[in-house]
Amino acid sequence: MSSAAILMCRQLLFSRCIHAGLLSVGVQLVMLITLLLCVNFQLWHPLDWAADSLRQVCSCYPWLASMPLIVAVAFYVITLSKQRLSERRYCPTRYRWLIHHGPRKLLFLIAHVFVGYLTAWLYTTYLHTDYRHLVYKSFGQDCLNSYHVFLLGMGITSGCYYFAANYMRQEVAMEFPIIEQKRIENLRGVLYETLLKSPLKSLWVTLVYSIGFWLFGGLVRHRLTHLIGVDADDRLLGILDVASNGRLLFYAWLLTTQIVSNMHLMQRFNHVLLSERLPLVIARSRMSANASEQELTVASVLGLFDMYVAQCLAARFLYEHALCNNSTIRLEIFQLTEPGNHPANWRALCDQCLSIVATFTEELIESMQHISLIKGNESHLATTAAFIDKKGPLRTEKLLIRQYNQLHGIRPASAEPTQQWDATDSVRHVPNRCERAFIKLETMFLGLLPRLPGIVYLFAESDGAKTVFLVDNALHVIWLTQALAHLCVASIKQDRYGVVQDDLTAIIRALHRLKCELDKLHSALPSLRPSHSSNYIVLRGAIRRSLYNICISFHDYLGEVIPNGEELRQLQAFICHG
Amino acid sequence: MPALKHYPSINLNRELLNTSNTAHFNVGEIFIPVESESVLKRISRTFFESGFWKALDEARSARAREQSPLISTTADYFAHLLELYRRLKLEVFPHTQKLSAERIAQYAETRDWIHSGIRYIAWHTHLFKVAVAGVDDVVRIYSKITDKNAGIGPVLKSPTQTQITCMAWRPLCAFELVVGCHQGLCFWIIDNNMHLGRSINPSHTFKHPSNLPISSLQWNKDGTLLATASLGDRAILIWHADDGKIQPLKRLGPPSSLLSWSPDNDHLIASTVGHVFRMWECYDRWKTERWVCNSDSVQSTCWSPCGRFLLFVATKDPILYCIRLVQLHINPSKYDNEVMPIADLNACVLNDRSNTLIGGPAQQLAMDPLGKYLIVTFKSTNYIAVFRTYIGQYEFEISGGHYLSGESADEYPSYICFQPLNMDNDRSVLTIGWSGGRIQLYVLN
């Protein structure tokens, strides 16, 4: 893929993120205007209410005052987009995770704090006069306004709460809708959902913050009075002062709702716009050289391994067109290209898809070798086979004794085969006293190290972590395999030149291999069971259905596609029994 | 019938007799009530045994009225007040109406759904497997008769599966069945590990977000999405069954009752309990087209195998309608997607039996997978009408064929469906579930 096309793909996705940010800013301004209408509400003087609100909206101050918030939102959106579009990298230990994700997470936390603080600051300027300013005059003395401090703290807490609840431990993951509806319907759905849920979530946050402010608010105010050089006021000293101030609690809840819903909207708008279809083509146009540089082909976008979102979008594009009954894209895949009448479109696509599936399967197999249960079974089998082959009954008896000992804990269980002294070795090296002491010390140190608190937590890789990571990031494989299967099935009627039939064996074998590996995982890794990981269920189901789709459609020709053997027998059994 | 020698003989009648009496009983009925019990004591006992509403009924009973008229009159006033509140609530929130079995039966495709021995029949898309749901809330699986297999499969029974309204085998999967019932969706994995006659729980269940019963469900053709409708919900739910995620298709209007995906999955038809029904274009960002049925709600629908024609009947109107989904490229006109009446199904007297009627408001439609026959069952007459169909590029025609009847004049068809074409079947095999619990298989040539 040309660098121009890669750049174009990046720009396209980034521009969508910017659009999402602009939408969020627009919604925030609408909410600000709504707030202005609410706080100025006068039941008996509706005309005054309308005039006052309109005057405030039309004046320059709200727009100028909202500039810092808009800048903070822009910073937030860019940080969010960068994380979403960045490459997915596997971090085997928590330490590596901290090194890789720590700075980004910290930056994102700062963005949350800024957005929370600035939203609170902007909104307090339109609230009741008691809440507007940080410092007020009381008996000729400058005093710190506790109400204002309370609300600013509420803003920061809301930002931190949202970060902790959604981003602190989880990756900034991409969610694709189940069905692709119009943008306006998706956005409307997101808006309704957010406006319904945020007020309820905010109640809890407000309550916890109020208790927190009662406990630690005095300390914060003390520091602030020293910092600004003003006196402290005597408001909000006790829990009763906080609990009995209905207006303050209402404002705090309103602010939290506003901040939480804004952040949620930014996240969801980003999802909605990023998950929209990319303008992809199967083959570049040959009419214009300049135009061809600007076209993104499905095969080339599928090859963007450092852009997971783009890969997923291309895979989904292919799946939808493979499934659609009257798709011209699918016909284009089966076409022969001129000059030369070669199936270049199918070739490029099939090779790319098979390469992705094969790479994924290889990585999965490699990761599974580190899972103790699978590793244990395999090494145990290997050991058993080795012993039986060499010496026969004597070795078998010894093996059984060792198995008995291991099972009943008489000796420490070890997966590694015991060292056998080979009579063919002429000289055996016997370590001297120093070496023995060194080895003993080293063993002791290595044994003690994991016992230190935090060492295992930070530097140990959990069992099957890489497998879980691979399965969690296999959305493109899910769509690709299903798309391949549908293309193969559609080729029965639509592939006039027989471009697909040569690759049927490779496709079936690739899917069958992956299916077998996933079946192994089903019993090996408890963290991938349905209650823990839905991604595994989705992946396994998709692979099984894809294989079933091809096998049932080519049932009569399966013997010709796959040579006689165990694989053919397994596939035939798979059709009947699943 | 020699052509159907591998097909299992199914008759639920005997099994239903065994289970129907023991299925539901009231513990309180076992004990003889004490005659000398005072009214208040009796009411309080009923309250603790059977709940508030039964206690109120007891307070208003003739016996209580005779013994203590004051308590009965007070209970009457209280009941009237509660009834008033209920009506007012239904006026303001009509969607909160509790879905009774009668209401489900009103919109079900199965005739006399409440009492019918067979409630639903579902054939596997690819294999020779048929699931039959009975009135006893049990799903029985039958398969092909071979030398080693008598054709009787597992029995699926669970407390979380009552009032079964619909079922569907998952496409591109050999062993997964989903059952729509009062509790929601029950997913059964029927593999070799499930032993004959063993009653176990479904592999997993999904509840409707508003805890409503499922009235209709259908898989898309590759088994990734499951569309469900519920009589109490305006939205159609699209489930991603593997991870349980839902995306609702929301529109204003009456609640949905029936769903049907076109064979190529281009369209999804969703009828409602009102006059409105909608056609969703699945591959065009789920755009929707709204249609209004003149007489009443849509009772049953069926697609032609090519997916270009949709046939439907209304609840009360004995007319068969057709919607043509063909775009005329040469001369596109505004009548392209118009609803066209294509047959009058009014009841008429059969030639050979002067006092026997066939026709009237239709109960269910089914079209054979080869597109040669259309089968219609009726709400009030017991015969099944078989029409010949002619499907062209732009036109759909039907002509009178013949009729099918049960073993006796009183026997009526509860549910009909066709066995799909697959590697085990290349014919149009009509499956008829009769009211007595008997299943008849009929090959249409």
Question: Which labels suit this protein?
Answer:
heterodimer; A: 578 residues; mainly alpha; 2 domains; three-stranded mixed sheet; two-stranded parallel ribbon; 71% helix; 2% strand; flat; B: 445 residues; alpha+beta; Methylamine Dehydrogenase, Chain H; 3 domains; four-stranded antiparallel sheet; globular
Structure description:
The complex is a heterodimer of chains A (578) and B (445). By secondary structure, chain A is mainly α. Chain A has two domains: 10-274, no CATH class; 292-369 and 468-577. Chain A is 71% helix and 2% strand. Chain A has a three-stranded mixed sheet. In chain A, β4 (280-281), α11 (289-294) and β5 form a beta-alpha-beta unit. Chain A starts with a helix and ends with a helix. Chain B is an alpha+beta fold and 445 residues long. Chain B has six helices and 30 strands. Chain B has helices spanning 13-23, 39-50, 52-59, 62-67, 69-92, 101-107, and strands spanning 10-11, 118-123, 129-134, 139-143, 152-156, 166-169, 176-181, 184-189, 204-206, 216-219, 225-229, 236-240, 245-249, 256-261, 267-272, 276-281, 287-292, 298-303, 309-314, 319-324, 339-344, 348-349, 357-358, 362-367, 373-378, 384-391, 396-404, 413-418, 428-434, 438-444. In chain B, strands 1-30-29-28 form a four-stranded antiparallel sheet. The longest helix of chain B is centred in the N-terminal third of the chain and has 24 residues, at 69-92. The radius of gyration of chain B is 24 Å and the shape is globular. The interface between A and B is large, with 35 and 37 residues. Chain B: InterPro entries: Aladin (IPR045139), Beta-prop_Aladin (IPR057403), WD40/YVTN_repeat-like_dom_sf (IPR015943), WD40_repeat_dom_sf (IPR036322), WD40_rpt (IPR001680).
